[in-house]
TrEMBL record:
Protein name: Chondroadherin-like protein
Biological source species: Paramormyrops kingsleyae
GO cellular component: plasma membrane
Matching PROSITE patterns: LRR (PS51450)
Positions of the UniProt region annotated as Disordered: 714-772
Lineage of the species this protein comes from: Eukaryota, Metazoa, Chordata, Craniata, Vertebrata
Length: 772
């Protein structure tokens, strides 16, 4: 399609550019574009909608940001389905007939913000289904067949603010169904068949503001589950078959909007809302209420909707009317009787007009009311399974928990089908051998904050399926290999916030499948040679927040799979280049907040082929050798240097693949020596955040705004470019050409200020596309 653009060499006027922009198809096929798809290499989008694709096309350009696969027939998403497109921010899989999402299907999509899985045929959300989506903000699962949410299904989604599960087949919500959604704002569960919510169904949703439960089968207001939502301001329960709300039903300190319309309410206790002080808007429209008494509790109710109720406007309604006038509550709805007031708007009625004809009629009306409010029933029974005392075992989810129940020994007698066992916050002190016999199905074991200082050999033996083990925030300082006997599948091990002063070498010999090891926030002081000798498959090693001052050469050898290494917030005084010499696949290295003052030549040379993300922020760095980044090239995506003391920088121009760079908080010396950086900033389409620290008169100015470089030798050629073919062609495609409002160019130097910045950005962009 690129050939559609005329290759002219003449200097183009703006009119011609505009015309060309119309003529050129913006969708340019980059080097890698699957045959049936449309690829836009400027916006980095790939669209393959309605193409009868049966799998995720393999040949998608790695740098793609938005991928649209809607309307295909992809029945199953395998593990790692998107591992070749790690930069995706938007992914649509709408209407793809997906039945199953394998564990780890989205692994590697750490930048994904929006995931649309609506209108598929997904029935079960497995534990860790959404593993790896750490930046995800919106997850849409509407119009599927979801009937089961396994514990931990959302445990990795710590950034999600909207989770939508409307139009599914949920009947029951188990305890902790949504655990891990630490930033959730709105949870949509509308149009399911929910009739039962476990007491802890919403546990952990501390940030939830809005909950939609409309169009379900709830017969009772879920009082206890709602108390787990301290921040909730809006609750939608419309279209549920509830018949009454009794005293103290709504215990929600911040609730402002409560929607209870289109239900079957016949009775609403005047004490129902005594623990909902902030309620401002109550919708009771389309129920069966004949009368309502003044509502106690809400201090500033402003709107009460009674539209569509058979409200009988007799003397019994007077207290409500007087209350609404006193409290300025706007009443909506109309009288259903008696005949002389029928159809009259409630808001227009004066209390004296509300009369009762006879004493008998009044008594009768009163009796009826008292009878209907006596309709209290007992809560529904629960499906019972074997379970130790002082624990809760859910037969339907195979989830057992005894969190914070004061146990001093590991309880026995959990159901053999248990797959998630949560024992956090008890006081075990040590874990004897054979503590978990008979629990061969447990995948995830939580032992956080249990004051554990010792794991006796064979502590976990028999847990053949164990994959996740959480031992964070205990008192462990040593570990023997025998402690992990009998758990060959263990993959993710959390040992952060313990008391390790030494790296527990040798402890992992019996864990051939260990991939991720968390040891943050211990007090490990140094890393000796060969500490990873037993963990050949390790991909992630997290050692931030220790006291590491020395790393022996060869410390990480061999570590053929090591991909992520976090050493931030330690006591390193230099980049441990020798230790990294043979870590051939390292993609992310974090050295932030170590007291490193100087980075010497070729510090990262051995990582040149693999490194993608380099964190050198907050270190107090004063100088980087001009060869410090030698070898790093188009592969590097992020370079974080903020919060240092750098006055100058090595050349960044080989880093043609950069997507994130941060230079803020460095006191750059803005004189002619900085000209190469300034030119580089002008040539890339990135937010660089560089400011001058010297000389004093320029302190705080953005490097790209200062004029001083005009007088430097070597500046002129850059500012009078001769347009090349590629500039012309590319400039016609960029829809985001910036107008130079903020710039004050000196016209003597700049012939065509409008064209300058965008075209140089295009040169950069086109080289980037060719090199990837
Ligand atoms: C997809 O398949 C259907 C039926 O086999 C066919 O009618 C339709 O044209 C195909 N669409 C595309 C884009 O190939
Ligand atoms: C009151 O309820 C009716 C019926 O549900 C609805 O149409 C109307 O918008 C509501 N009015 C207000 C102000 O909420
Ligand atoms: C209310 O209930 C009592 C017995 O509990 C019954 O005698 C009476 O008829 C009922 N009144 C009405 C109006 O339903
Ligand atoms: C619980 O375990 C049983 C037996 O292992 C299994 O059939 C069932 O699918 C499990 N339920 C869930 C929700 O995982
Ligand atoms: C380590 O400690 C720091 C500082 O208290 C904290 O911000 C970080 O979240 C901790 N990390 C872990 C994994 O515990
Ligand atoms: C950290 O290491 C230094 C020696 O390098 C030692 O003096 C200090 O006590 C250690 N700090 C902790 C918290 O272990
Ligand atoms: C850049 O660094 C500054 C200072 O630490 C920080 O406030 C900002 O959020 C960073 N920006 C990015 C994109 O990392």
């Amino acid at each position: 399609m690129a050939q559609a653009c005329p290759m002219q060499r003449a200097v183009l006027s703006w009119a011609a550019v505009a015309l060309l922009r119309l003529l050129c198809v913006t969708a340019v096929r980059p080097s890698r574009c699957p045959r049936v798809c449309v690829c836009d290499s400027i916006q980095l989008t790939v669209t393959c909608a309605n193409k009868n694709l049966t799998q995720v096309p393999p040949a998608i350009n790695e740098i793609t940001l938005k991928l649209d696969l809607k309307g295909n027939t992809i029945q199953e998403l395998p593990t790692g389905a998107f591992q070749h497109t790690p930069y995706l921010t938007h992914l649509s899989l709408l209407r793809c007939g997906i039945q199953r999402v394998r564990v780890g299907a989205f692994r590697g999509l750490g930048r994904l913000v929006h995931l649309n899985l609506a209108s598929n045929k997904i029935a079960i959300l497995y534990q860790e289904s959404f593993d790896g989506l750490s930046s995800l903000k919106q997850l849409l699962l509407d119009h599927n067949l979801v009937e089961e949410i396994q514990p931990g299904a959302f445990s990795q989604l710590s950034s999600v603010s909207l989770l939508s599960l409307a139009h599914n087949r949920l009947v029951y919500l188990p305890n902790m169904a949504f655990q891990g959604l630490q930033a959730i704002k709105w949870l949509r569960l509308s149009h399911n068949s929910l009739n039962n919510l476990a007491v802890e169904a919403f546990a952990g949703l501390f940030t939830l503001l809005r909950l939609s439960l409309d169009h379900n089968e709830l017969q009772f207001f879920p009082t206890s589950p709602m108390t787990r939502l301290p921040e909730l301001t809006r609750l939608e329960l419309s279209h549920n078959p509830m018949t009454y709300l009794g005293e103290e039903t709504v215990v929600m300190p911040k609730l402002a909007h409560l929607l209870l319309d289109h239900m079957s309410l016949q009775d609403f206790s005047q004490m129902a809302l005594t623990s909902a002080p902030r309620l401002a808007h109550l919708d009771l429209s389309h129920n069966q209420l004949r009368i309502l008494h003044p509502l106690l509790g809400p201090e500033s109710l402003s709107r009460l909707n009674l539209t569509g109720n058979p409200v009988y406007c007799s003397c019994y309604l007077r207290p409500l009317m007087e209350w609404s006038i006193r409290g300025r509550v706007r009443l909506l709805g109309a009288c259903a009787g008696p005949p002389y007031l029928s159809g009259e708007n409630l808001g227009a009625i004066h209390p004296p007009d509300l009369r009762c004809q006879s004493q008998e009629a009044m008594l009768k009306a009163e009796m009826e009311e008292m009878n209907s409010s006596a309709l209290l029933t007992t809560p529904q029974p629960r499906y019972k399974v074997q379970c130790p005392a002082n624990c809760v075992c859910e037969g339907e989810t195979n989830h057992s928990t005894c969190e914070n129940r004061g146990h001093t020994t590991v309880p026995r007698g959990f159901p053999p089908d248990t797959s998630l066992l949560d024992l956090r916050e008890n006081h075990f002190h040590y874990i004897p051998s054979q503590s978990f016999t008979g629990l061969a199905q447990v995948v995830s074991l939580h032992l956080q904050r249990c004051k554990i200082h010792e794991l006796v050999q064979g502590a976990f033996s028999g847990m053949r399926s164990l994959v996740y083990l959480y031992l964070s925030e205990n008192d462990l300082s040593v570990l023997s290999a025998e402690a992990f006997k009998g758990v060959p599948e263990l993959t993710y091990l959390h040992l952060e916030r313990n008391k390790f002063a030494k790296f527990p070498c040798g402890a992992f010999q019996l864990l051939p499948n260990l991939l991720v090891l968390h040891l943050e926030n211990n007090t490990i002081a140094n890393l000796g040679r060969g500490i990873l000798a037993d963990t050949k498959r390790l991909t992630g090693l997290y050692l931030a927040g220790n006291n590491i001052s020395t790393v022996a050469p060869g410390a990480f050898e061999p570590a053929p799979a090591l991909n992520t290494l976090h050493l931030s917030s330690n006591q390193l005084r230099e980049v441990p280049s020798d230790a990294l010499a043979k870590v051939a696949n390292l993609a992310e290295l974090r050295l932030s907040e170590n007291p490193v003052r100087w980075v010497g030549p070729r510090a990262f040379l051995s990582l040149a082929d693999s490194l993608k993300h380099l964190y050198l922020d907050g270190m107090g760095l004063e100088k980087m050798s001009k060869d410090s980044l030698a070898g790093l090239g188009s592969g590097l995506r992020s370079l974080l240097l903020e919060g240092n003391q750098l006055e100058a920088l090595p050349s960044l121009s080989p880093l043609t693949g950069l997507e994130v760079i941060n230079l803020s908080g460095n006191p750059l010396m803005c004189d002619c020596t900085l000209l190469p950086l300034r030119k580089w900033i002008e040539s890339v389409n990135l937010k660089v955040r560089a400011t001058c620290g010297h000389p004093p008169e320029l302190r705080g100015k953005k490097v790209k705004d200062v004029q001083i470089f005009k007088s430097c030798p070597g500046e002129k050629p850059l500012l009078t470019p001769t347009p090349t073919t590629s500039q012309i062609v590319k400039s016609t495609k960029n829809r985001r050409i910036k107008t130079p409002k903020s710039k004050k160019p000196k016209s003597a130097h700049i012939k065509s200020p409008k064209a300058k910045k965008p075209t140089s950005a295009h040169i950069h962009k086109s080289t980037r596309l060719q090199t990837t």
